[in-house]
Design goal:
Blueprint: H1 9-39, H2 41-55, H3 64-84, H4 89-113, H5 121-126, H6 131-160, H7 171-195, H8 199-213, H9 234-246, H10 253-277, H11 281-284
Length: about 280
């Protein structure tokens, strides 16, 4: 017989109540962490901007070097793949430019999220700050880089005189969804990678595979009658709800619902994990 079998019903109830109380306290602590972290947005912005300045210290063009490299890649790949895929250049170049810019943001965000806490080990050990602050710092930093790279898309639109029109406004809900999901990804991967240091290489391999199967350099219409399978790709769905409106295409209700479903699921998993392990992160570093 186990030790628990000798407990009286009242003792079992007290143990269950204690477990529920501990779980409730973890949720309250996690919510307080998120609330306090987001409330310190001026500090988040300052730290994110400092990261960018330190990364490009001594550089003449700063983050615009990344903009130039993205533009060069769009120019080189655009003409080549337009010929290989037999696509209209005027339609394919804006698609490719927007796809690469948005994917670079997603890939950089996921990669940085893996070291959200481990890269701030010294600060976490010496200063009591909300963990959400470090996650938000990553989101803001990559948003600033995304804004720099958006210049490539604007230049392409101007050169080809191709504008999405009022349809582009539909990208706003997608961007809001991205912001919430990005914070969840940073909290989730930051916590997991603080405990398991061999996860970042696995994540990098997954992102590399996702690049080729998520219709970044090829159009989903090329799948013809099999295009429906893309709804099972969370990377594609989240990418399409922002990319589609910006190239004048309204995402289907199925893609939009799938993107929202994936985002809600990810946020739920991130919340459960973060609430459970938040108190141990500092000891794992």
């Amino acid at each position: 017989m186990t030790a628990s079998s000798h407990l009286q019903p009242s003792e079992h109830a007290s143990l269950d109540l204690s477990a529920n109380q501990r779980w409730s306290e973890r949720h309250r602590s996690a919510w307080r962490d998120v609330r306090e972290g987001l409330a310190q947005w001026p500090l988040v912005w300052t730290l994110a901007w400092l990261d960018i300045r330190l990364r490009y210290r001594g550089s003449l063009l700063g983050p615009f070097w990344l903009t130039l490299s993205t533009g060069a890649m769009v120019g080189a790949m655009g003409f080549l793949y337009a010929v290989l895929f037999r696509l209209e250049l005027r339609d394919y170049i804006p698609f490719l430019a927007l796809s690469l810019v948005l994917w670079n943001f997603l890939a950089a965000l996921v990669g940085d999220s893996c070291v959200a806490f481990t890269s701030n080990e010294g600060m976490i050990r010496s200063v009591r700050m909300p963990f959400t602050l470090y996650a938000a710092r990553i989101v803001v930093r990559n948003l600033v880089v995304l804004a720099h790279n958006a210049v490539v898309v604007l230049v392409v639109y101007l050169l080809l005189w191709s504008w999405p029109g009022a349809t582009a406004l539909l990208a706003i809900p997608g961007l809001v969804l991205w912001l919430v999901t990005a914070l969840a990804v940073a909290l989730l991967l930051g916590a997991i990678c603080a405990r398991l240091h061999d996860i970042p290489p696995i994540v990098a391999s997954v992102m590399q595979m996702a690049f080729f199967i998520s219709a970044v350099i090829w159009k989903p219409e090329q799948l013809a009658e099999r295009e429906w399978v893309m709804v099972f790709n969370p990377f594609f769905c989240l990418l399409e709800v922002v990319r589609g409106p910006l190239i004048g295409v309204v995402p289907s209700a199925l893609i939009a619902a799938a993107a929202a479903g994936y985002a809600v699921t990810l946020c739920g998993v991130a919340w459960v994990v973060f609430a459970r392990v938040r108190g141990r992160i500092a000891f794992w570093l």
